[in-house]
Amino acid sequence: MATINWTAEAEQWLKDIHDYIFKDSPSAALHLVEAIYNKAQLLLEFPEIGYTYKTNPDLHIRILLYGHYRIAYLIKPNRDIDILGVFHGALDIDRYL
């Protein structure tokens, strides 16, 4: 069975999102982080649910949407999934991937 691995960078992005929202609403911050994590768990059953990232089609990098956030992930040859980052929709994702 495939596994989902969160890279250190992805964990840091998620922590930064949490910390930013936490300032205004601790409960909303926790809810958002849990919801993003749960959305990523869908990849275990449906690894190609996200759209192909346009600039790197050969690397099988895909983007899964959740609200205003984009979860970037890589499907590896063994079908395991690496979460590469969680980006707000306003960010230029090309700068990071």
Question: Could you describe the 3D structure shown?
Answer:
There is one protein chain. This protein has 97 residues and is of the alpha+beta class. A 5-stranded mixed beta sheet has the order 1-5-4-3-2. β4 (69-75) and β5 (81-88) form a beta hairpin. α1 packs antiparallel against α2. The longest helix has 16 residues, at 26-41. The protein has a single domain (4-95), classed as 2-Layer Sandwich (YaeB-like fold). The termini are far apart. It is 32% helix and 27% strand.
Provide a compact summary of the structure.
Helices cover 32% and strands 27% of the residues. The protein has 97 residues and is an alpha+beta fold.
Could you describe the largest sheet, including whether it forms a barrel?
5 strands, mixed
Distance between the amino and carboxyl termini: 27 Å
Extract low-pLDDT stretches.
Answer: none
Shape: globular
Order of strands side by side in the largest beta sheet? 1-5-4-3-2
Radius of gyration using CA atoms only: 13 Å
Oligomer: single chain
Give the helix/strand class: alpha+beta
State the CATH superfamily name: RelE-like
Layout of strands and helices, then pairs:
Elements lengths: L3 E3 L1 H15 L3 H16 L9 E2 L8 E6 L2 E7 L5 E8 L9
Helix pairs in contact: 1-2
List keywords for this structure.
97 residues, five-stranded mixed β-sheet, 2 helices, 27% strand, globular, YaeB-like fold
